[in-house]
Amino acid sequence: MSSILTNTSAMVALQTLKGINANLASTQSEISTGKSVGSAKDNAAVWAISKVMESDVKGFKGIADSLALGDSTVAVARQASETITDLLTEMKGKIVAAQGSNVDREKIQEDIVALRDQISSVVGAAQFNGLNLIEGADSVSILSSLDRQADGSVQAAQISVSRQDLTSTDGALGTGAGLTDLSSNVTATSTTLSSAAIRDDGAGTPTDADISLTGDFSGDSLSFNIGGTTVSFAAGDLSATNTTAAQTIADAINAAQIDGITVANNAGTLEFSSTRNFDTTAITVTQGGASAGTLGATSVTLDQRAESFTFANVTVNQGDGYQFALSNGITASYVAGAGETMEDVVKGLKVAIDSEVNADIATKVSKNGSDQWVLEIANENASAATVTITANDDANDNAVQTGGLSGLDDVDVTSDAGAQAALDNIETMIQNATEAAASFGSVASRLETQTAFISNLTDAMKAGIGALVDADMEEASARLQALQTQQQLGIQALSIANQQPQNILALFR
């Protein structure tokens, strides 16, 4: 049935043409913008995901800037640490030269002072954008990533950079109310530094190391082994009188000039003594010949002059402080920084004691059989000295941390004692500077790796966003041509449908 009121064919053709035009407009939008999802109405879910990822990409650009700033700061600190290591090594050469007695120590000291001032200059200048990583104690955090959780929350990740204090700051214990006594961490053979040579008979008490002679030694042969040095007497060398024999033996041993060892004759008793600071000396006697004489002992032990302070293998926390106060006026403190160990504490205390430049006090650091660090202190003064040990855990964080180059300002090679102390302590300073440079090198490597990762991650996220919202241009081009053809056909079909009512007029002619 044909109708002049309702043109069904035109309606169908018109709806078809509208659909074609809508698809054509969408395709033209994809081609012009390059996106298949340009707004939330195109695909709400995909558009929302892409916007979240785009915000993360923006954040990663900021992270890349933070990493670049951090890397530059660490690079400055690493270069400064390496420079300080080189300067300390040069200073060591000067200190070694000062060990001789026929050198101009005053001139050498001037060179050392110049190197010390240069090190101070390097420490002060080693900053980037106002941040100096070789001064102070607090760690520094560098923004390294943004971690998005499954629930949509975002957490910032940080790379922590520990400062490596290479200043010459002397440590000072805290005095806050929250201090906890840690003195059980240190045990001493004695807290009294004897003023006399220590003579030990091996029984553990500082008594005379005596060997008594009784009877006739004229036909006896005797061989004394004193710490590896042998003094021998053949049969006939000694008198039948024990006191005379003892004097002959004492004179011969003293004439041998064994370092730090002397012997006296006390009415036929040999009394051995030692002024060796850090060496225990064993004395053994071998008797032969007629063996008519009798020895009160065939072996004795001369203990070292120094007293030993053994530090337990415990964790050292930042702010832990140890102080040795000697009655002769020496007060030495060491306050640990972050990540330090008992080795740092013991070596730091040695440097602090040596920095007092007291010719009567000698120190040594060693390790015992239990892998514990030991600080040995010897007193060569005519008066005994007592040691008071204080060990605090600074819970209130008001202690002054000891600088890695503490004692540098006190290096003085103009005396024998100062030159020897400087030789021992320069090694600790070089080790601290080397460890600082190595620490910064490790952080720099990590920052470099993280920077490369952030760059690659940003590229991957951009590619992912593109896969979600970017238009397939080849497909869009082909679809555009097809839709343009469909549009032309739709227009033609609508034109034909609009011609149908005109054909009804022919029926009335």
From TrEMBL:
Residues covered by the Flagellin C-terminal domain: 423-508
Keyword field: Bacterial flagellum, Cell projection, Cilium, Flagellum, Secreted
Any one GO molecular-function label of the UniProt entry: structural molecule activity
PANTHER family, sorted: FLAGELLIN (PTHR42792:SF2)
Protein's UniProt keywords contain Secreted: yes
Pfam assignment, any one: Flagellin_N
Subcellular location: Secreted; Bacterial flagellum
GO terms under cellular component: bacterial-type flagellum; extracellular region
Family of this protein: Belongs to the bacterial flagellin family.
Name of this protein: Flagellin
Organism: Thioclava atlantica
Family matches, as InterPro entries: Flagellin (IPR001492), Flagellin_C (IPR046358), Flagellin_N (IPR001029)
Principal cellular location given in the protein's record: secreted
Domain Flagellin N-terminal: 4-137
Function, as annotated: Flagellin is the subunit protein which polymerizes to form the filaments of bacterial flagella.
Entry keyword annotation includes Signal: no
